[in-house]
Design goal:
Elements: H1 11-29, H2 34-70, H3 82-103, H4 107-132, H5 137-142, H6 145-173
Helix pairs in contact: 1-2, 2-3, 2-6, 3-4, 4-6
Length: about 170
């Protein structure tokens, strides 16, 4: 595959982005608890960053909370959090992709990007419920430390899935 095949807004890039968005939304629609859905969605955001780049993954990260709200997956009390979830998703993706570009796709680049992105996402969401928006206490609690855990676990899942996919692609080319 040529690099130009995955330039933003090429047919291949649009197709991959749409498929990754659909898979991410499917995880959301399964109705599992936050500690299952959160890592799955975060993993998909990071996998998207790897396979369609920052622009495609950020688009997915911005659309998922909005679509989840419109579809009734995201509870109405979370509506004021949608912009903060969008920004948190974007930061997670950007930190992960840039760290992997600078430090390599191995453990170091993945771990640094994941940790930085997860911490900043956690700080954005927890600060929003503490200082900016008024949400019920259970919602505020869900937007704090669980967000750090789900982002970190999602990153571990993404790293494992990416290694499996890379091995499969490599074997397919041989």
């Amino acid at each position: 595959m040529k690099d130009e095949d995955l330039k933003p807004f090429s047919i291949r890039w649009l197709t991959r982005t749409a498929i990754l968005l659909a898979i991410t939304l499917a995880f959301q629609m399964l109705g599992f608890p936050q500690m299952v859905t959160g890592p799955a969605v975060n993993a998909m955001l990071l996998i998207s960053g790897t396979y369609v780049g920052i622009i495609g993954a950020v688009i997915i990260g911005m659309l998922t909370p909005l679509i989840a709200f419109v579809r009734g997956i995201l509870a109405p009390p979370l509506a004021p959090m949608i912009p903060f979830i969008m920004v948190g998703n974007a930061v997670l993706i950007i930190a992960y992709v840039i760290s992997r570009a600078k430090l390599g796709k191995g453990y170091a680049g993945s771990a640094v990007g994941l940790i930085i992105g997860a911490i900043i996402k956690f700080l954005i969401l927890s600060s929003a419920v503490r200082f900016i928006v008024s949400v019920p206490p259970p919602v505020a609690k869900a937007m704090q430390i669980p967000q750090l855990y789900t982002a970190l676990l999602g990153g571990v899942i993404a790293f494992i899935v990416e290694k499996i996919l890379d091995a499969a692609i490599k074997q397919n080319r041989a």
